[in-house]
Amino acid sequence: MFIMMCDGGRKKEYAYGSFKVWDEEGELVYEEWKIFDDITSNESEYAILVAGLDWLVENNIKKIIIYSDSALVVNQILGEWDCKHDHLQAYLTQIREREPKFEKLKVMKVTGKLVKHFLGH
Fold first, then answer.
1. Which of 67, 69, 70, 91 lies at a 20 to 30 A Cα distance from 114?
2. How far apart are CA 82 and CA 93, in angstroms?
3. Alpha-carbon distance 110 to 58, whole Å?
């Protein structure tokens, strides 16, 4: 199984996100940073996850564990929390559209400290 760790956030002037992907041997195989224009912190968490899923699909990676520090994103994906905002529902819909492209896709909540350690910010 590959592992992907992702994180998003917002500063006053912009939103940002990054993800890294490791292979089964623990080798870093890809990392990406993005700056987003006018979106919220929660939207940036979703947007970078969608970008990561797209990269995984493009590279024919079928088994993935995804780690995120966003309780909102993880719990909405797992169906434990309702998604009450249309702007977030659009991202959740994009994730649902990509899920069938994976043999195994697991999403897990981790601490922000762990994510920042592995993503380097």
1. 91
2. 13
3. 26
Q: Are 9 and 15 in contact (CB under 8 A)?
A: yes
- 78 C-beta neighbours (distance < 10 Å), count: 12
For 2-119, give the CATH class. Answer: alpha beta
CA distance 29 to 98: 21
Identify the DSSP state of 23: -
DSSP-derived 3-state class of residue 101: helix
| N-terminal to C-terminal alpha carbon distance within the chain | 25
The first and second tokens of residue 84, run together, are: 């009450």
Report percent pLDDT > 90 for the chain. Answer: 86
Residue type, 27: E
Number of Cβ within 10 Å of residue 19's Cβ equals 25
Q: What is the DSSP string of 37-70?
A: SS--HHHHHHHHHHHHHHHHHHTT--EEEEEES-
